[in-house]
């Protein structure tokens, strides 16, 4: 891969300059010609440096691979505070947990970034004591990088053990409990999820799973956070939590689901049913109303666009986009207002959150949180759904369903099966 070798060589030469023995921040950009078959996911996965973060925007126009942490942040507000005095296009990457007060975000040492048809490789230097010393560490970092190696095809292996949390009977009991709470008017909606652990004889390669998902799950964001040699969290979700360009804010309500179909005509029939189904329209409008209520005190006029059908590989969703302008470009405020949305938690938010904490038999951790980046100039985070936690030879898949009056436990179980199928089918989860 001549492009990456040439770009790394340019960065190495920049580090031969003299740097002050005092605190400082600096970065170097080198252009990256897109004239060979360079895959940033494969490149970042070739390295034995962590954390690693891969991101592709759902339109495919933006893509990033970030490597190594100069600074780590346990929450988005801390990351935003760090960015305040820095150049406006410095980006911090990572995850916000389902509990938005917790995060795993970082300023990378090295960042490959593509926007449209242009790409660059950026190296960051930062030290609160000596920029000269950090430049020496950056030289050692570049010297320790491994050559680019193509990704291996995902090895499909039989599943030795499968465990649902909750199992099917417990799920039915959970739904009955939720419906009882809904009838008492303590809740309008609650989103309940299932985690499933699939255990294999051999370790599962997270980057190969990400690549396999990227090949087949169109119109989705793709993200992967690799914490160390054995642990990663990745996903291919369709839903944007928010996108900010300056003060301009775009978010959306993605709620209401029907099965997909390979046949275009049949898929259109199913989509038409979804567009006219009262239960699903009610579920979507609950999310719209909640988002608008949260934003109205902090933004200008809100523009709710007409409903659309979003057709994915295994399912179809109802989506309404919501556009507005923030009074101030504040990503910490966006996170506070928008996460968790009614599409992943329920309504009222606090009551739904409490119900989930009390009754779901697993910790959501990063699931139903968000993944993406923030900078002073702009930010974008997707909702961390259609996701998997890879821990050595165990893969945990997640999927959830919105429970409202009239929900049926068996139908909701089938819905979460359909949602999880996007990643499950790639692993060939067959009992040995």
From TrEMBL:
Pathway: Quinol/quinone metabolism; 1,4-dihydroxy-2-naphthoate biosynthesis; 1,4-dihydroxy-2-naphthoate from chorismate: step 1/7; Quinol/quinone metabolism; menaquinone biosynthesis
Chorismate-utilising enzyme C-terminal domain span: 168-419
GO biological process, one term: menaquinone biosynthetic process
UniProt-listed InterPro entries: ADC_synthase (IPR005801), Chorismate_C (IPR015890), IsoChor_synthase (IPR004561), MenF (IPR034681), MenF-like (IPR044250)
Top-tier EC class: isomerase
Residues holding Mg(2+): 283, 415
Keywords in alphabetical order: Isomerase, Magnesium, Menaquinone biosynthesis, Metal-binding
EC number: 5.4.4.2
Cofactor(s) annotated in UniProt: Mg(2+)
Enzyme active site: 189, 239
Catalytic activity: chorismate = isochorismate
GO molecular function: isochorismate synthase activity; magnesium ion binding
PANTHER family, alphabetized: ISOCHORISMATE SYNTHASE 2, CHLOROPLASTIC, PTHR47253
Protein function: Catalyzes the conversion of chorismate to isochorismate.
HAMAP family (alphabetical): MenF
Family label: Belongs to the isochorismate synthase family.
Protein name: Isochorismate synthase MenF
Organism: Kosakonia arachidis
